[in-house]
Amino acid sequence: MDNQIPKLSLDSLLKNNDQSLELLSNALSNHGFFIITDHKISHSLFNKAYEYSEKFFNLDTSVKSKYSFRESAGARGYTPFGKETALGETVPDLKEFWHHGPVTDDSYDERIMKNIYVNEIDEFNTVFDELFNEMNTLGTQLLSSISLTLGLDENFFNTSTSKGNSLLRLIHYPPSNNENIYRAREHADINLITLLIGANEPGLEVKDKLGNWIPVSSSYDDIVCNIGDMMQLITDKRLKSTPHRVIKYKTDEMKSRYSIPFFMHPSPDTILKSVFNDEDKGVLAHDFLDERLKAIKLY
């Protein structure tokens, strides 16, 4: 198996021809990770997103803490440094983060929370509303192609994700020494698929089927996509949720690291059940998410 994470052109993928779908299917089967190029989301929007992310994390801790709501497991707003702990781990990750979701109205499930406005930074929500919409559109396109590789209708996921519980996570890994190199310990994602901007910084590694760790190498404009646990569940592990981690190499300088993943979730009222087994009763997406959030100590 090739130990490079494959790169796929979105332009080619959206043609949904046999060749592009075979490349996607192989990437999903072999790695559970792939890199998207030619996605058309503007470089300037990425720049602005990182600028505003840095502005927020540079605020005084007392200011950031006003936006922390533990009772909602940090579903929106700020989660302080050293809070989230990877499943099965005892040492917290070395990060702080912010959650931003869709602009909701009465047509959304009432369990999807409204976004929080940061009073100290003008245009903060405007920037991340735009980025959310762009990433959500890209996620919808990728789910259509993934559906076809599974022999499903290309619109299979649309009903559950069009008003889904998806979110952007702005992550800040503060400068750290080499005493603890694990900025984010080995974990798998909870959701259907994850789209990541910011993997151009070194540190993201993917675990292959033999247990080896593969560094992810991408350019600033690329977006890294991976399968999450919800997708693994409904495909009876045909698509595997691949473990990954973020480390600080000893040769890296001591500086902050920023990244922005987009986690694509279905609506909370979606029944997550096998697409291959009609007898499967499934589990409610809300319950699946809630259980995992408790397991990683966000409650």
Walk me through the structure.
The chain contains eight helices and 14 strands. By secondary structure, it is of the alpha+beta class. The protein has one domain (7-295): Jelly Rolls. It has an eight-stranded mixed β-sheet with strand order 1-2-10-7-12-5-4-3. The protein has a four-stranded antiparallel β-sheet with strand order 6-11-8-9, with no helix packed on it. A two-stranded antiparallel sheet has the order 13-14. β8 and β9 form a beta hairpin. It starts with 6 loop residues before the first strand and ends with a helix.
Keywords:
four-stranded antiparallel β-sheet, globular, Jelly Rolls, eight-stranded mixed β-sheet, alpha+beta, 8 helices, 299 residues
Give the C-alpha Rg. 18 Å
Poorly predicted ranges: none
Task: Characterize the largest beta sheet: strand count, sense, and whether it forms a barrel.
Answer: 8 strands, mixed
Side by side, the strands of the main sheet go 1-2-10-7-12-5-4-3
- What is the CATH topology classification name? Jelly Rolls
Strand content: 15-25%
Arithmetic mean of pLDDT: 91
Tally of individual domains: 1
How would the global form be characterised?
A: globular
Number of helices: 8
Could you say which structural class the secondary elements and strand pairing correspond to?
alpha+beta
CATH architecture label: Sandwich
CATH class assignment = Mainly Beta
* Number of E-type strands: 14
The helix/strand order is EHHEHHEEHHEEEEEEHEEEEH
Task: Summarize the amount of helix as a percent range.
Answer: 25-40%
Distance from first to last alpha carbon: 40 Å
Under CATH, the homologous superfamily reads B-lactam Antibiotic, Isopenicillin N Synthase, Chain
